[in-house]
Specification:
This protein has about 280 residues and is an alpha/beta fold. Helix content is about 40%, strand content about 10%.
């Protein structure tokens, strides 16, 4: 009897993953395994087995395409934590590269949960993939449940404003939303600022076709050099800052919370400035 095609493909992907990771990724993933139901997924749809298969292409991009350099990842504390990063590049490759870094470079390894936009579940195939590798729609209730379970959550406070800005505004941080800050204060969760250098150059946007974006229900429809959603081979540098322990009440006035959010934004800005100053090459 022949094996089902899906099983053959998954087995091949697992072997590829292990070869890229040096043979220890499966063991590292066992450290981040979660309770699963009879369908092999956790309450949010995460599947360890699926992730081990699906991570191979991302790990190849991490190692050989974007050639990711990581600084300061040892600063990420154990237990619940909010990773707060800049968002850029038209494609969500920044979140994927941070996720791979936490799996293969973190000590101990962590499977982070990214908070995705509400429109993502409307995309065919993409929504299932996102859930299986641990990504969750960014509602406050979802975040509270994950933080109470000791998870590491990745948030992009710039939201769609960051990922859809034109290339002329590269590395210019857009306004931070306050949702992450309210959650950090409510749950007493440390915030780790993260800077992503390299994502801006992976798919520079020279125009935004707004009517098409509205018709498709997307926040933006950028025109990039590749035309297709294929990133250019820009070098990435991920910089993790010191944990920030913020104080105050989550129901404080917006003006008070905005000042606290500005301190986090300034920390991300400082890491970005450092990464850009240290960069010697964009693509080579």
């Amino acid at each position: 009897m022949f094996e089902p095609v899906e099983d053959v493909v998954r087995a091949g992907l697992r072997r590829w993953t292990e070869s890229l990771a040096g043979g220890d990724l499966e063991e590292r993933l066992r450290h981040v395994s979660r309770p699963e139901n009879e369908y092999g997924v956790d309450p949010f749809g995460f599947s360890l087995d699926y992730t081990l298969s699906a991570v191979a292409p991302l790990l190849w991009l991490y190692r050989h395409y974007h050639r990711v350099k990581v600084t300061g990842i040892e600063r990420v504390p154990p237990g619940r934590v909010l990773l707060v990063a800049n968002h850029s590049g038209q494609l969500p490759m920044d979140g994927a590269m941070i996720g791979v870094a936490m799996l293969v470079e973190g000590h101990p390894p962590r499977a982070i949960r990214s908070m995705v936009e509400r429109w993502v579940p409307s995309l065919p195939w993409v929504s299932t993939f996102m859930a299986r590798v641990g990504q969750v729609v960014g509602t406050p209730e979802n975040c509270r449940r994950l933080l109470s379970a000791g998870e590491a959550i990745l948030v992009f406070p710039e939201g769609a404003r960051g990922i859809s800005k034109p290339f002329s505004k590269r590395y210019q941080l857009q306004p931070f939303g306050l949702g992450f800050l309210r959650l950090a204060l409510e749950t007493d969760t440390p915030v780790v600022p993260v800077a992503v250098v390299g994502a801006e150059e992976q798919a520079p946007a020279f125009a935004n076709v707004r009517p098409l974006a509205r018709a498709l229900g997307f926040p933006a429809f950028p025109v990039t050099p590749t035309l297709l959603p294929i990133p250019l081979p820009s070098r990435y540098h991920l910089l993790f800052g010191e944990p920030m322990h913020l104080s105050g009440r989550p129901d404080d006035d917006d003006g008070v919370l905005e000042r606290k959010a500005e301190t986090v934004k300034a920390a991300v800005r400082a890491l970005l400035d450092r990464g850009l100053a240290e960069r010697r090459s964009i693509y080579f």
